[in-house]
Amino acid sequence: MLINVGINHQTAPLEVLEKITFSADESVDALAAFHASPVVSEVVLVSTCNRVEVYAQGEKFHDAYQHILQCLAAHGQLNEDLLSSHLYVHYGPEAVRHLFSVACGLDSAVLGEHEILGQVHRSLAAAQKAATTGPNLHLLFQRAAECGKKARTETAIGRHTMSIAYAIIENTKTSFATHSEENPLNVLLLGAGEFGSSIVRTMAKVLPLRLTVANRTKKRADKLAAELAGRSIEFDSYLEHVSSSDVIISATSAPTVLFSTENVAPLVGGKSTLFVDVAVPRDVSQEIAELPNASVLTLAQLQEQVQSSATARSQEVAAVQEIISQEVQRYLRDDKKRSVSPLIGDLHRWADDVRNKEVDRYAKMFAELGDKDKKAIEALTKSVVAKLLHGPTVKLKDTAGTLEGELLAQASREFFDQS
């Protein structure tokens, strides 16, 4: 049985969600923990800024759910009853539909966003690397990615999206009206991960800026700074660069606040400084906004701006949902056919074994025949077996997953002794 257990920006407050998110390193250990129980045979973890979702293959729904809940609660150091009140759960076809909707961007803070499709790909790759997935979830995630691509190709759901980066750009333009190639904005980025890097790359295409990058892994900061003609600094020296920065973007995975009124107050005041906090957990204290000439832009505020630009794309939702319905049905049909593949394989092996034994039994009669005639007999007997099994094979595949299919499968096992 396919089970999906998740939590996102719609079902939980930020203070709960930020405790449940997984870094890349934490995801490796989490996959091992989810997979350690015999009640879960396959598992994939999708963890982004706005969601944490576990997709698992398990024999018994309740046992698998309890195990996943315990792992999530232990990771976030949360009470299981509290956490469960913020979780959503799907199973079977509804879990399939939910993942396909996620891949199409219908469940995102930014309707139709492109980033989630890459995250679905990377989540599957991480599970494959950790050896926690198998044929069931591999096919599911592969089809989810195909569905997401089809939705963006055949509809306008992914067009004209205001991303978080463009929302930051719009706010920056409002806060700093005068900037040019001769007078670029001084931008300090903390956290050169995928999210932070994508933001400054987009900003650099639109705004003249002078970039400074701080990252705990200096090599990554060096690489991004070189790419955008900026400079990198040691992470621990970031406060030394606050006073010379116009825009400070914080996108780390630090467990505690990096910018507080206490450490920022002595560094700002003479000019406008915009703090952009896109980290989960939060890096910037909201109280900084009360300081003279300082303003704070939170991830929640950015998401609200982005959502307000989604009117045109919302008109595409019905068309995307129709694509999702078609792709879910296609997946379920193929999954049902796949479910009877072992039985069909057993039947063909049984029949071929009978054929081989009969050919061997008459081998002496064929001894005087030439190679050409022997090959003809081999081809003839194989053809007879294939034709005899063609009808039952097609019928088993077409009725898989139905009551009729279950009865036919059981009858086939009894008739051909494949129990």
Describe this structure in words.
The chain has three domains: 157 residues, Glutamyl-tRNA reductase, N-terminal domain (Beta Polymerase, domain 2), CATH 3.30.460.30; 144 residues, Rossmann fold; 77 residues, no CATH class. Helix content is 53%, strand content 13%. The protein is built from 17 helices and ten strands. The longest helix is centred in the last third of the chain and has 28 residues. It starts with a strand and ends with a helix.
Mean of residue pLDDT values: 90
> If you compute it from the alpha carbons, what radius of gyration comes out, rounded to the nearest whole angstrom?
29 Å
| Total beta-strand segments | 10
SSE string, helices as H and strands as E: EHHEEHHEHHHHEHEHEEHEEHHHHHH
Strand content: 5-15%
Distance between the first and last residues' Cα: 22 Å
Q: Identify the quaternary structure here.
A: single chain
Helix amount? 40-55%
Top-tier CATH class of the largest domain: Alpha Beta
Q: Would you tell me the structural class of the helices and strands? A: alpha/beta
At CATH level 2, the architecture of the largest domain is: 2-Layer Sandwich
Give the overall silhouette.
Answer: elongated
Spatial arrangement of strands, main beta sheet: 7-6-5-8-9-10
Count of folded domains:
3
Q: How many helices in DSSP terms?
A: 17
Largest sheet: 6 strands, parallel
